[in-house]
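Entry:
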Amino acid sequence: MSLDSTPSTDAVRSSRLAERLLVPAGFVTTAGNAFQITAAAILVFHAEQTTLAVGWLFIAVSIPQVALAVLFGKLVDKVDRRMLCVAADLVSAMTAFALPVWLWLGGPANLGSYIANFMLACTAALFMPASNGLIKERIRDERLGKFNSHFEMASNAGMLLASSLAGFLVIWFGATPLFVFNSLSFILSAVLVYAIGRKPAKAPVAEEAAATDPSAPVEAPVRQPIKRLALLYANGNIGLMVANVILTTLILQTFNQGAWMIGVVDALAGVGFIVGAAAYGKVSKRFKGIHLAVFGTLGNLICLAIQPLHYIALMAAIPFAGFCFAQGRIAARTLLMRASPEERVGRIFGSTQALGLGLGVGATVGLSALADATTVPYAFWGLAILQGAIVIGTYFSLAKPLSAQEKQRPAEVLEATAA
């Protein structure tokens, strides 16, 4: 008993410390990134005046992550995840600061935006699986649902708050100060992650139990539908990527509104998402994770289809879209993370990121071209149809394995693993 008590106590203490530090780290990092990408998107659109030009900016952010996420995911499962996160943050800080230096020297804004965001994406390809591996490694499994709701709320609040302010700040001060802030946000994130400390030793509970009673039966591990859960989670990445592109064009071109409206819309979406994330704990007690993941996504897509009808409809629907997106996003993330073995979580989330962004790149090119050839509302409806087909198809593909597991395992265990 005494042999296990110290490591167990250290693990609990480490989990609580990680929760307190990783949430604000996620907030500042996503806030800085949102300042960066929103300001860059506005610069590129004013320079090129096409949806596809903005789309290529987001594609430049996505290509390195598609190409490198799987490779870096394997690295994450072999190297200290905390130090990988710190290293990625520090490299990102230097890269982010290079863009305002480029602008101060008189370099072309659109070229600098493409290059800087491309380089930031390379380090993001390492940071994403490393941070998710760190979460799985440090946060106790029974706390993952609650932590993910807090983490997603903080991260998306940072993203949406910064995006809502970015439109106004670009008008008042220009884009350069936002790029400097992004550089500082990476440094703060590195400090917070480093403060988590080293990974505590784990108590060898399973080994000691087997040594005490060798005749005790060993329960066979339940096979998890990782690939389908990964697709369910990656579907949200597709929506985020494409919506960021076509929403900018919808506001600036179709509705003929200024950059200020981007801020208002992002603020409304942020309110909906924060309320949804805050309510996730109570909602998840009444519904299974798989149902929240599916119906939350479908609710978001219904709101998405309404948004391009009129700018009043956009502002009315987007808070509800944010609420529904929060339910689907957090549920899908928690399902995938709980089902992922700790020793493979880096490559699983790396592969999931590559899948989501790869599909997102194709959808962005296709739907941006559709918007330029016809009108932007058709791109919104095309996105809703695409994501709806993915989530419905994935849900029905999970029906058989979930039904089989329900007969073998209690409901609460099912929801905590592969529901």
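The chain has a mean pLDDT of 76.
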